[in-house]
Design brief:
heterodimer, A: 408 residues, mainly alpha, 15 helices, 2 strands, B: 188 residues, Four Helix Bundle (Hemerythrin (Met), subunit A), 6 helices, 72% helix
Chain lengths: 408, 188
């Protein structure tokens, strides 16, 4: 377990060590902020391309400075606060949304180990023994940003949005945790550095292959829901809730929410690369002095691919309805990841146990499907339709669904 | 046996954590708005998590944040917002007769118990941990594997019984909630 401590602190703490730590923090923060600026530009450009538009083009080459211009504009706008607002919480909430994204990025290993002035330096801000649990804790905290922003606005739609958001984020945290448990199980350590080191020996050791595709799929869906990104953005469904939890926010506070959303997107892409795609692992060409730079390039490349996939989701997928979203979380993802967890832990002991667990999971899956069927027929079967219709008006699409079910 | 030396850093961390816990705890009972009280509670939980980290109990610290701050207080807030009780409540009203004297007595007994325990100094050693087996805590690398081994070997039955109890509670809650809704629909 010694590897879970940062080797930088092994020989006591000198001035050089303090400076290196400060340098790591400042570089990580600056890179993250700049990455957000590029990410916002990238998202707008990519979506424009997919929708046959041109997108931002006036500020800087290819419109690269558009985000800077937008940020300046937002800062110069009037800062409004509703009369009904809870002033302290209203001011606090944007920062609660922003800080977890920054803290989570601290545990992401960006590259290998670098030697600066004789000190071995891990290219990650911190390598705490609790490791990936820090990410779970921070995603738990990020609920408050949305929730308190909606409540503190003292307005109807933000409150509805925040209640929705908190229910959604808590629901998907369970599936998220189970997917992470599988990664921790095969690695044998919580530390992100160890998780990456265990995947460093080639493509077949990457967790996405080693665990089967399922945990990665569950994680991707759950993390998209945690981020409130499309297609899970019922939080800011503008057709129902005006602008969602940040309807009442303007000026710089709105800019912070915007920043938080994109910062979280980048951080979670990086976490996904760390957990399932080997982090900075990749082919390193035999060059004499610049070998340390290639892992960083691999990491940036993989993270960019995931950042692009989020943009793609946004452009391609329609928004989930709220009940569909809850069904997916509770009735599909959690049983699926629980079952797969059993199979993975079975295979870790012996192949025979793995297959036995697979059979058990299949049996449980059949029973669960049957239970869902019975539950559904009890709720909206032929005998349930008529009295309900008699009692209260039913929206036409619900009626169509019930009658379709009856025919099938 | 009381370890005599503490580093400046350890004392600073302890004082910070203690202040977070105390200010948060006082806030929970003195603030009038329920949402602000819940936020004070989060502050207390964070203080406890900091204290856990200082004791190299990293897993406990993470679980403290994930479960208590990340889920339970969110549920508190959820209920507060959903039921619309987020307005100031009269502090002078006493729903149960004689609850204040009873609470004062309870606090007095607890404090007296803690003081007696500390005076006998049986559990107050000043050491990082009271565990005797294994040195994972001493090296400061966290105690996840130690905790896991204990839960799945020595305390397996207690652990499984707790799990079964929780599942029963969840199923019971769902059954109760569902039945109410079905009756409601039949009536309507």
């Amino acid at each position: 377990m010694i590897s879970s401590i940062d080797p930088l602190y092994a020989h006591g703490i000198s001035l050089a060590v303090v400076l290196i730590v400060l340098l790591r923090v400042v570089v990580a923060f600056a890179v993250l902020l700049n990455a957000v600026i590029v990410m916002i530009w990238f998202e707008r450009k990519a979506i424009s391309d997919m929708q046959s538009r041109i997108g931002p083009q006036r500020w800087g080459p290819f419109g690269l400075l558009q985000t800077v211009a937008d940020g300046l504009k937002l800062m110069l706008k009037e800062d409004l606060m509703p009369a009904e607002a809870d002033r302290f919480v209203f001011k606090l909430a944007p920062f609660l949304a922003l800080i977890p994204g920054i803290i989570t990025f601290a545990i992401v290993p960006v590259g290998g180990t670098l030697t600066i002035a004789g000190h071995p330096v891990l290219l990650q801000v911190a390598n705490p023994p609790m490791g990936i649990l820090l990410m779970l804790a921070m995603s738990g905290i990020s609920v408050y940003g949305v929730m308190l922003a909606g409540w503190a606005s003292g307005s109807k739609y933000p409150l509805l949005s925040s209640v929705r958001a908190s229910a959604q984020m808590i629901s998907y945290e369970a599936a998220l945790g189970l997917a992470i448990v599988m990664v921790v199980l095969v690695t044998g350590s919580l530390s992100t550095h160890d998780i990456v080191a265990a995947q460093a020996h080639g493509l077949w050791h990457w967790n996405v292959v080693r665990l089967g595709f399922i945990p990665f799929a569950v994680f991707l869906i759950a993390i998209t829901a945690e981020l409130n990104r499309p297609p899970f953005d019922v939080v800011e469904a503008e057709s129902e809730l005006v602008g969602g939890f940040h309807t009442e926010y303007s000026s710089f506070r709105f800019a912070i929410f915007y920043l938080a959303e994109f910062m979280n997107t980048i951080t979670m892409s990086a976490i996904m690369v760390t957990l399932f795609f080997g982090g900075p692992a990749g082919w390193v060409p035999p060059v004499p002095h610049l070998r340390w730079i290639f892992p960083i390039l691999w990491f940036v490349l993989k993270t960019t691919i995931f950042a692009f996939s989020y943009v793609w989701f946004r452009a391609a997928l329609p928004r989930f309805r709220y009940d569909q979203l809850m069904d997916l979380g509770w009735k599909r993802l959690i049983p699926l990841s629980l079952g797969w967890l059993l199979v993975v832990s079975g295979f870790l002991i012996a192949p025979a146990w793995g297959f036995a667990m697979g059979a058990v999971v299949l049996l449980a899956w059949t029973m669960l499907t049957r239970a869902f069927e019975i539950g559904a027929s009890r709720e909206r079967g032929a005998e349930a339709v008529l009295p309900v219709i008699g009692a209260r008006p039913v929206p036409p699409e619900v009626l169509r669904e019930w009658t379709d079910q009856e025919d099938a | 046996m009381i370890a005599a030396t503490y580093s400046v850093g350890a004392v600073a961390v302890f004082v910070t954590a203690a202040l977070l816990v105390l200010v948060g705890a006082i806030g929970v009972i003195s603030v009038k708005n329920p949402v602000h009280a819940a936020m004070s509670l989060i502050m207390t939980l964070f203080g406890v998590a900091v204290a856990f980290v200082a004791q190299s109990a990293d897993f406990l610290a993470a679980v403290q944040i994930i479960v208590y701050a990340g889920a339970i207080v969110v549920l508190f807030l959820f209920v507060i917002m959903f039921l619309g009780v987020d307005r100031r409540e009269g502090v002078r009203v006493e729903p149960l007769v004689g609850q204040r004297p009873l609470a004062a007595t309870g606090v007095a007994i607890t404090v007296a118990g803690i003081v007696i325990l500390m005076a006998r100094s049986h559990w107050v050693s000043g050491a990082m941990s009271v565990s005797t087996s294994g040195t994972a805590l001493a090296t400061g690398s966290g105690n996840v594997s130690q905790l896991g081994t204990a839960v799945f070997t020595t305390y397996l039955y207690a652990f499984e019984a707790t799990a079964a109890l929780l599942v029963i509670a969840v199923v019971g809650a769902i059954v109760l909630a569902r039945r109410e809704r079905l009756i409601d629909e039949e009536d309507a």
